[in-house]
């Protein structure tokens, strides 16, 4: 795990204590915060029960973390903790500000990451919306029961806008199923139909921004599970020349949000696959993830698009 998150054992424990401090800033230890702390401990390779993790002072955190890059990484993780249950509370902001000042991190760096976290959380909410709306949901969530699911996600579901049928947009997506096998459009159609997801424009469908993320999964060739999401984020980070570790912490948002949905909540993935995805992204010549529209290439074979974008084989 050290290759993904280069913290020593002492540093990892300090980061975990910082996460707990942010979580407890408003005097409550919410279910999502507990889930995120447990997932973070596993990802950091620290054996600790969420309730048993002590808090930490800004001075103690700064003493434990000396390297500037690791300090920034830890602070970003703390911001993820602050926003996992909705908006960062005033109490959480005070803790985050104290950490930032003591760690010597510029405020501008945190503002950029805050926007990224907000976007990821919104995408996670939409992902939840379409999974709960899928006919497969009854089987997927049977382990915990619907009452537990609804109790856990009430505020997320209420926060989502109610979508109406956009027949023109919906028909545009349905028609891509008529495209030849192997084309981007046909594979996107298959991706949605196999999962019984509603297309953008259909009742209960998601915004096209989430469709674009699904297309990234399809073109990069990574699955839609936890490990596939980690690989996809690492691929994007490599593609954009960004440091990937903090982006991987964002996946913990999705894991924490879904932590009570199934019986198997383990974070069993292989770090070498994540590192390979980052390297593969770095070797890609065109950043197709920033495209605002894929309609002009829906009828193109994926094999040709991979050549066009210069995506190395897995």
TrEMBL record:
Protein name in the entry: Tellurite resistance protein TerB
Gene3D superfamilies from the UniProt entry: TerB-like
Organism, scientific name: Nannocystis radixulma
